[in-house]
C-alpha cells in the first residue's frame, strides 16, 4: 500500500531543532491528521468533525484531548492496570491550552461535534511537548476541510539570564524569571498563560510580542502544508438557521426593557429573574404552536438582545451591570483563623464571589507523587480548587474535579508558589484547598487572595503577599470604541471579549491568564489592561493587609513541627536499618514521622510530629546513630552477645565494640561463664579504633587497680645464696 506524504519544515532559528510537519502517512481516515517532529519528540494530532450539527445546538461542541503514551519515554505505567488511564492534571492543562487557542477561531455559526486528539508518541527528554501541541492540532485542522479562521500556533517564551528565548529546554527553565505559553494567529494574540518572578507590565508585553514573531513563522508553515495537500477549500455548512423578522421582533419587544434592567444595578439573582421574566413575556407573544426551530431562534435572539444591551450600556454610558464604573473593584471583606482546627485558614469575599480556603502542613511523606510519561517526580506544594453547584445557585452533582477546576487551581498555584520560602527555609509539604462558596466572577482570583491570607495565618514566611484581578474588555469594531473592565462579573465574562487574569505582588506580576474572543487586540489596549490591572490588584492588596499584613511569628499551637538534620551520607543506611527496621522502630516508639533522602552527597533527615516530646526523642536517637565514637570517651553500653574470648557491647545504636576477656577486670578471668548475660548494661571506655573500624573497649581501666602484693623478705627461691652482710 502506498501513501502520499507531504512535509514542511519550520526553522525558528537559534539553537532550536527544526520542526517538521507531515501528513498523508498516518491516520488517514480522520478529517485531518498531522505528525509533528522536533528532535526525538513526535506528536500525532487528528481532528474529526461531523458534517451536520445536532438540532437546537447554538454553540461549538469541541473536545480537545491530549495524552502522553508512556512508551514515548520508554516507561511502563504504574498502577494495577499498567496502562494509560484517565488524563493526568498535567495532560488536562495541555488540553485546556489547546482548546482555549482553537475555540475562538471556529466560525460562530459552526456547531458540529468536533474532536481534536493529540498524542505524544515519542519524547525528547529536553523538548517540552506542551508548547508544540497547539501547533500540531492547528496543523491537523489546516489540512482538513473543516471551517477554521486560523491557522494558529503556540510557543513558550521565557526570560533566561535577561534574554527572551522561544521554546527553551526543560533544563533551562529553572533559571527563568518569566515563562508563558502564548497562542495566536498570524495577526492576533488569542491566549496567554504563564508565571513570572515579579516582572513589570512592560516586560510581560515585550515577551508576548516576542512570542508572536515565532508564532507567525509556524502559521506560515501550516499555510504551506495546506497548500501542498490542496486543503484551501473548506466544507460548506448551515448550522444556524435565521429568521430576520423574528430577530427584529425580539429586539423591538425586549431591548429597552433589558437595557433598563442592566442599568438598574441590581444583584445577580434579581437581574437573572427580571431577564427571565422579560424573555418569558416575549415568548408568550409568539403563541403556543411553535415549531422547534422557532423556539430555538427566539431564545437565541433574546440572548443576542442581552449581549448587545449590556455591551452598549458600558460603551455608551460607562455603566456596568452592578452600577460600577469600569475601574471600580467590588467591596471586599476578609477574615483569617476562621477554621480553628486548620493550620491556617481565611475567608475572602469580593462582591458576590467568596472563597473559604484552608492550609494544611505535612511532612515529606505527604508530598504528591507525579507519575506521568514526560513529567514525573514529587511536588511539595499542592493547591486544590473546588467549585460546587451551590456557589452559583445550581443543582449539580459532585463528580470530582473537572477541567475548569484543574485549570483555575493551577493558575492560583502558579501564583502563590512564586512567593513561597525556599525549601531550605520551609520543610513542610503544603496543601491549600479553596472551596468556592459563592461565584459571580473570578473565583480563581479570590482563591489567590484567600490563599495568601491563609498562608500568612499559618505562619508561612511568604516573600510577599499576592493578590489577583480579572479584567474584561468590550469593543465595538464599527466605531472603534472599547472599554476595559476591572473585576469583571460572571455575565461580563460571558458577554465580553476578553478574560484577562493577572496576579502579582507590589513589585510585579507573578502569573497571568488571558483568553480573547475577538480578532485584533491592539498592543496599546493590552498595555492599558495591564496598567489598569495593576491599579486594581494593588487596591485589593491594601484591603487584604487590613486583615493580616505579615506572616504570624509562629505556627499554630496545634500545627505539626518539623526538624531537619543533615547527616553524612555513610550514616543513611544506619538510620534506615536493614529492611527499614531501625527507622520503623524509631517511628513506632517515639510517635514521630521520619523521612530521609540523599541530596548533594548528604543525608537530609526530617522529623515530623505533633508534639515536642516525640520530636526530641526521635532526634536524640538519630543523633546517637550518626554520632562518631571518640577514643578515650566513656560509654554506657549494652551487652549484645557473649563469646568465649569476651563480649560485644553496643556503645551507640548500631555500633558494637569488643570487650576482650582480658579487659573486663584486673583479676584474670579463665572463662566468660557467669560474667555477663545479654542485655546487661556495662560502662566501658573506648581504647582504640583500627583501620577496619573495629573498636577496642575496656572495663577494667575504669575500675580501681588493686594494690601490688609484695613478697616476704628472706623468702628466697631454693638454691639462692643470701646476700653478704655489711
Core attributes:
726 residues; alpha+beta; 8-stranded antiparallel beta sheet; 6-stranded mixed beta sheet; 13 helices; 29% helix; elongated; disordered C terminus
Give an overview of the whole structure.
Helix content is 29%, strand content 29%. Strand 20 and strand 21 (509-516) form a beta hairpin. Helix 4 (244-263) packs antiparallel against helix 5 (268-285). The radius of gyration is 36 Å and the shape is elongated. Residues 716-726 have low confidence and may be disordered.
**Poorly predicted runs of 5 or more residues:** 716-726
What is the overall silhouette? Answer: elongated
Largest sheet: 8 strands, antiparallel
* Amount of helix: 25-40%
Spatial arrangement of strands, main beta sheet: 8-7-9-10-21-20-18-19
- Helical segment count: 13
Indicate the radius of gyration in whole angstroms: 36 Å
Amino acid at each position: 500500500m502506498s501513501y502520499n506524504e507531504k512535509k514542511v519544515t519550520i526553522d525558528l532559528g537559534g539553537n532550536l531543532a527544526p520542526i517538521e510537519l507531515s501528513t498523508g502517512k498516518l491516520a488517514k481516515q480522520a478529517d485531518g491528521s498531522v505528525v509533528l517532529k522536533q528532535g526525538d519528540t513526535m506528536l500525532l494530532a487528528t481532528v474529526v468533525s461531523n458534517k451536520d450539527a445536532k438540532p437546537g445546538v447554538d454553540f461549538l461542541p469541541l473536545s480537545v484531548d491530549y495524552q502522553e503514551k508512556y512508551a514515548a519515554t520508554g516507561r511502563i505505567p504504574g498502577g494495577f492496570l499498567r496502562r494509560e488511564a484517565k488524563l493526568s492534571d498535567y495532560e488536562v492543562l495541555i488540553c485546556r491550552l489547546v482548546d482555549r487557542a482553537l475555540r475562538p477561531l471556529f466560525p460562530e455559526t459552526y456547531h458540529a461535534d468536533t474532536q481534536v486528539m493529540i498524542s505524544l508518541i515519542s519524547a525528547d527528554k529536553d523538548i517540552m511537548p506542551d508548547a508544540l501541541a497547539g501547533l500540531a492540532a492547528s496543523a491537523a485542522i489546516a489540512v482538513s476541510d473543516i471551517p477554521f479562521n486560523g491557522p494558529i500556533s503556540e510557543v513558550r517564551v521565557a526570560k533566561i539570564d535577561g534574554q527572551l528565548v522561544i521554546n527553551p529546554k526543560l533544563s533551562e527553565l529553572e533559571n527563568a524569571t518569566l515563562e508563558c505559553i502564548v497562542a495566536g494567529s498570524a495577526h492576533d494574540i488569542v491566549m496567554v498563560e504563564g508565571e513570572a518572578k515579579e516582572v513589570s507590565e512592560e516586560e510581560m508585553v515585550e515577551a508576548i510580542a516576542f512570542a508572536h514573531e515565532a508564532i507567525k513563522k509556524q502559521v506560515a508553515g501550516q499555510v504551506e502544508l495546506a497548500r501542498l495537500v490542496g486543503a484551501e477549500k473548506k466544507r460548506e455548512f448551515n448550522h444556524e438557521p435565521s429568521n430576520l423578522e423574528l430577530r427584529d421582533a425580539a429586539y423591538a419587544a425586549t431591548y429597552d426593557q433589558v437595557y433598563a434592567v442592566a442599568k438598574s444595578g441590581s444583584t445577580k439573582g434579581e437581574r437573572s429573574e427580571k431577564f427571565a421574566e422579560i424573555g418569558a413575556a416575549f415568548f408568550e407573544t409568539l403563541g403556543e404552536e411553535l415549531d422547534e426551530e422557532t423556539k430555538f431562534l427566539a431564545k437565541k435572539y433574546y440572548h443576542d438582545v442581552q449581549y448587545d444591551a449590556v455591551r452598549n450600556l458600558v460603551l455608551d454610558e460607562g455603566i456596568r451591570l452592578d452600577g460600577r464604573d469600569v475601574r471600580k473593584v467590588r467591596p471586599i471583606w476578609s477574615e483569617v483563623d476562621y477554621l480553628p482546627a486548620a493550620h491556617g485558614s481565611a475567608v475572602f469575599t469580593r462582591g458576590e464571589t467568596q472563597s473559604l480556603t484552608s492550609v494544611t502542613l505535612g511532612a515529606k511523606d505527604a508530598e504528591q507523587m507525579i507519575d506521568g510519561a514526560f513529567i514525573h517526580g514529587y511536588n511539595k506544594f499542592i493547591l486544590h480548587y473546588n467549585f460546587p453547584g451551590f456557589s452559583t445557585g445550581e443543582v449539580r452533582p459532585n463528580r470530582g474535579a473537572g477541567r475548569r477546576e484543574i485549570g483555575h487551581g493551577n493558575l492560583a498555584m502558579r501564583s502563590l508558589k512564586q512567593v513561597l520560602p525556599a525549601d531550605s527555609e520551609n520543610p513542610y509539604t503544603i496543601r491549600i484547598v479553596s472551596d468556592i462558596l459563592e461565584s459571580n466572577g473570578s473565583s480563581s482570583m479570590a482563591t489567590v487572595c484567600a490563599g495568601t491570607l491563609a498562608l500568612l495565618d499559618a505562619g508561612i514566611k511568604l516573600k510577599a503577599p499576592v493578590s489577583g484581578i480579572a479584567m474584561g474588555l468590550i469593543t465595538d469594531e464599527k466605531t472603534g470604541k472599547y472599554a476595559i473592565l476591572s473585576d469583571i462579573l460572571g455575565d461580563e465574562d460571558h458577554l465580553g471579549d476578553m478574560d484577562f487574569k493577572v496576579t502579582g505582588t507590589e513589585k510585579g506580576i507573578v502569573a497571568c491568564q488571558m483568553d480573547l474572543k475577538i480578532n485584533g487586540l491592539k498592543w496599546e489596549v493590552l498595555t492599558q489592561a495591564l496598567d489598569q490591572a495593576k491599579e486594581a490588584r494593588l487596591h485589593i492588596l491594601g484591603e487584604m493587609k487590613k486583615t493580616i499584613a505579615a506572616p504570624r511569628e509562629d505556627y499554630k499551637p496545634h500545627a505539626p513541627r518539623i526538624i531537619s538534620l543533615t547527616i553524612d551520607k555513610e550514616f543513611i543506611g544506619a538510620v534506615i536499618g536493614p529492611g527499614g527496621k531501625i527507622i520503623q522502630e524509631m517511628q513506632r516508639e517515639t510517635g514521630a514521622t521520619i523521612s530521609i533522602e540523599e541530596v548533594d552527597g548528604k543525608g537530609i533527615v526530617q522529623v515530623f510530629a505533633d508534639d515536642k516530646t516525640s520530636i526530641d526523642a526521635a532526634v536524640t536517637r538519630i543523633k546517637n546513630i550518626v554520632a562518631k565514637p571518640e577514643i578515650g570517651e566513656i560509654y554506657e553500653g549494652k551487652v549484645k552477645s557473649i563469646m568465649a574470648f569476651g563480649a560485644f557491647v553496643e556503645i551507640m545504636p548500631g555500633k558494637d565494640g569488643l570487650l576482650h576477656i582480658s579487659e573486663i577486670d584486673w583479676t584474670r578471668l579463665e572463662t566468660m561463664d557467669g560474667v555477663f548475660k545479654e542485655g546487661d548494661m556495662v560502662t566501658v571506655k573506648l581504647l582504640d579504633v583500627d583501620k577496619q573500624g573495629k573498636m577496642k573497649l575496656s572495663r577494667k581501666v575504669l575500675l580501681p587497680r588493686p594494690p601490688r602484693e609484695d613478697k616476704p623478705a628472706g623468702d628466697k627461691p631454693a638454691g639462692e645464696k643470701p646476700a653478704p652482710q655489711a
